[in-house]
Design brief:
303 residues, alpha/beta, Nucleotidyltransferase, domain 5, 5 strands
Length: 303
């Protein structure tokens, strides 16, 4: 009420506004009540709101403008604020920010019926007990003014960490997914012994140059069904979040190189800063660090 009167008092006057609106809006302020409210010092809640609203706007912007109430609440608590979830929701409305929504999936898998395909070792059970036990991968695309940019991700199921990625102007197996695989292998010291590598039946992943490299690195190939999002659900979910949180938020995109640079920054944020609901609102690197700390503690106590 006070904000409304402040906006129109110079045009209509306080008494006229209070008298007119008091007849239409039950409980509207009188002119005396308005002046008393304006003379009172701000309450503790008002002062806290004034501090938190710009902080929420800053944190929302720093995190790609994608966090909804649950993650923003967790992030504010990480930042040291004593705040409830309902209060977070109220202040997000006042700050004019909200979480991002995903769009429907567009399928890009192109199967090659002539190839002999590996079996499905995952069978829709996207769980792992440790890092480098199960990796999932998939390809998506981004429309730019200079043509399509194709994006390949490899994700560790245990921590949701993106362990390898690549952006290219082509879907060729030796360019797009293979470079993502090489990045993942490099981060793992070039040894993928025992890692289950799960993909769909796309010709990119079934090409001899790719499958040969998977086996050469010691990984175990596994494939789902063509066009079945459930058989590669986690990889599909990462693509959907990437499109919702980065591509649609920051577009339109001019070049493949522009998408590549933005994806580099996004992957760093995903692994180091993004709070994942499936990880109890922790980051992938925090989950892996906690795992290795626990393993070290068990080894120490066993000696």
């Amino acid at each position: 009420m006070i904000t409304f009167i402040d906006a129109y008092r110079d045009r209509f006057g306080v008494e006229f506004l209070c008298r007119t609106l008091g007849q239409a809006v039950r409980g509207f302020l009188t002119s005396r009540g308005y002046r008393a409210a304006k003379s009172r010092p701000p309450s503790a809640r008002q002062l806290k709101d004034e501090l938190l609203i710009p902080e929420i706007q800053r944190l929302h912007t720093e995190n790609y403008g994608v966090y909804g109430r649950r993650k923003m609440h967790a992030l504010l608590q990480r930042e040291g604020w004593d705040i409830g979830r309902d209060q977070t929701h109220r202040l997000m409305k006042l700050a004019g920010v909200e979480g991002v929504r995903r769009s429907k999936k567009a399928f890009t898998t192109r199967p090659d019926p002539a190839l002999a395909l590996p079996g499905d070792l995952v069978e829709r059970r996207f769980t792992a007990d440790r890092p480098n036990q199960l990796w999932v991968c998939d390809i998506t695309y981004v429309a730019t003014w200079s043509g399509f940019a194709y994006v390949s991700f490899i994700v560790d199921v245990f921590s949701r960490r993106i362990v390898g990625w690549n952006v290219a102007a082509t879907l060729k197996a030796d360019v797009l997914p293979l470079q993502a695989l090489e990045m993942a292998a490099w981060h793992n010291g070039g040894d993928l012994d025992g890692v289950i590598h799960h993909s769909d039946h796309g010709s990119n992943y079934m090409a001899l140059v790719y499958t040969g490299r998977v086996q050469e690195l010691g990984a175990i190939p596994s494939t789902g069904t063509v066009g079945d999002s459930f058989d590669n659900a986690m990889a599909e979910a990462v693509n959907a979040l990437y499109k919702a949180e980065l591509i649609r938020q920051r577009g339109p995109w001019k070049t493949v190189e522009e998408v590549e640079l933005a994806t580099l920054e996004y992957v760093w944020w995903w692994n180091n800063k993004r709070l994942h609901g499936e990880l109890d609102l922790r980051t992938p690197l925090e989950v892996e660090a906690a795992y290795y700390t626990e393993q070290e503690s068990l080894l120490t106590s066993a000696r």
